[in-house]
Every structure is written in structure tokens, then in C-alpha cells.
Amino acid sequence: MVADECLLDADTLAGLLDATPAVAAANAGTERPDGSRSRACFAVGGSSTVSVNVYTTNRVTPDRYVRDAAGARAVTGTGEGTTAALLDTVAGPTLQLGTARHLVTIAVAGRAPSDEQWRTAARTAVAALARR
After folding, report:
1. In whole angstroms, what is the distance from residue 21 CA to residue 14 CA?
2. What is the mean pLDDT of the chain?
3. What CATH number belongs to 10-130?
4. Mean pLDDT highest for which of 19-23, 30-34, 117-121?
5. Nearest to residue 29, comparing CAs of 17, 21, 20, 41?
6. What's the rounded Cα separation, in Å, for the pair 30 and 124?
7. Where are the domains of the chain?
8. Using an 8 Å Cβ cutoff, are 43 and 49 in contact?
């Protein structure tokens, strides 16, 4: 995990949302009834939302996790040393991005970004992770 999961800048978020973010993206946490906690970065714009999560994987490398995702469609051009794929999830279309150390998920509810918008988001996320 990283302390700040807000890996996408305002321009990249605007592309995914097809609108300017209503407020700056922010990390938000939730506590489940069983006491476990989770956190994600959220942005809202127009009638869409974007959530970004950063994970580590236990059994396989992050890029292998992405390659093995059932029903995923590969997305190329996301940067050297990355593996990316799009999945249809209940949260909306979701990009899974595997790097050497992290699994990043970027979910968009309310619209379907173009492949180029997904590529931009992946490259932006990778650059932000490199700075952390």
C-alpha cells in the first residue's frame, strides 16, 4: 500500500470523468462491520465517479495477477514494465494495472472511457508511484 492513493492528476481525472472534478480527489476510508478497513481515492465530476486503489499481491506478482484476470481485455501502451487490462465490474469499467511492486485498480462509474484515456491514466499512475 501507499499512503496516498490519489495517483491521478486533475487533467487525467477530467478525461476519465468527461468532466472537471467537482473537488480535488481525496483519500477516503471505510470501516466494515467486522472491523476491517479499506481506503481508496475518489473523484466525482458530472454524473461519474473514479476510484483508485493500490494493493500488493501475496501469491503472484502484480503483473501476473493482471494477466490471469478472467474476462479481461488487455490494454497496451501503458509503459515499460507494466501489464494492464480492462474488466467489467459492478463498480463500472475497471483498469487493473500491474507494476513490479503494486496492483493498481482504477474504476469509473457512470461512463466508459476510451482506451487512450485508460492508457493516460495508467501512465500517470505509474509516474506517481515512482515518486512515492
Report:
1. 6
2. 93
3. 3.40.1000
4. 117-121
5. 41
6. 26
7. 10-130
8. yes
> For residue 90, with 0-12 CB atoms within 10 Å meaning exposed, 13-18 middle and 19 or more buried, which class applies?
exposed
List, for residues 49-72, the tens digit of each pLDDT value.
999 999 999 899 999 999 999 999
Q: Is the CB of residue 83 less than 8 Å from the CB of residue 97?
A: yes
Distance linking the first and last C-alpha atoms of the chain: 11
Is the overall model pTM greater than 0.90, yes or no? yes
**Cell numbers that stand for 94 in this block:** 475497471
Q: Which residue has the cell 499481491?
A: 57
Per-residue pLDDT reduced to its tens digit, 69-98? 999 999 999 999 999 999 999 989 999 999
Q: Could you identify the residue written with the cell 466508459? A: 112
DSSP assignment string, the chain: --S----S-HHHHHHHHTS--SS--EEEEEE-TTS-EEEEEEEEETTEEEEEEEE--SSS-HHHHHHT-TT-EEE--S-TT-EEEEEEETTEEEEEEE-SS-EEEEEEES----HHHHHHHHHHHHHHHHT-
Question: What torsion, rounded to 10 degrees, do the Cα atoms 44, 109, 48, 86 define?
Answer: 90
